[in-house]
Amino acid sequence: MKIKGIEASQTWQIRHEVMWPDMPFEFVQLEEDALGLHFGVFESEKLVSIISCFITNDEMQFRKLATLEDFQGKGIASKLINHILELAKQKNLRKVWCNARSNKKTFYEKFGMIDTGEIFSKEGQEFTIMEILL
User: How far apart are CA 68 and CA 19, in angstroms?
Assistant: First the structure.
């Protein structure tokens, strides 16, 4: 398993397949993708998990964390989260946050992230904002 920086366009297929398979492919292409840092986990040269990070001032938002179904439950996404938290510390950022699907909240709590209580819905999915102060 290897974590590498990737292009935004390399994230789109996994975002679509894992997160929004019923939406048009363009739905997973973010306007701000060109401004982000994107990372992927490779298993034997196959891209299996992705995350996108957006830094504004002293904060990093990560978005679109997704792992192909056959590779879920193996700690791959956890390695990606730890990777970006380390990156945030190296960049002396104050906070890392995300819009987490509410049913995945306990996953993010494992990293010390807390639920801010800010909840919203998008395309029938409920999200809550999770954050960690560094």
Answer: 10
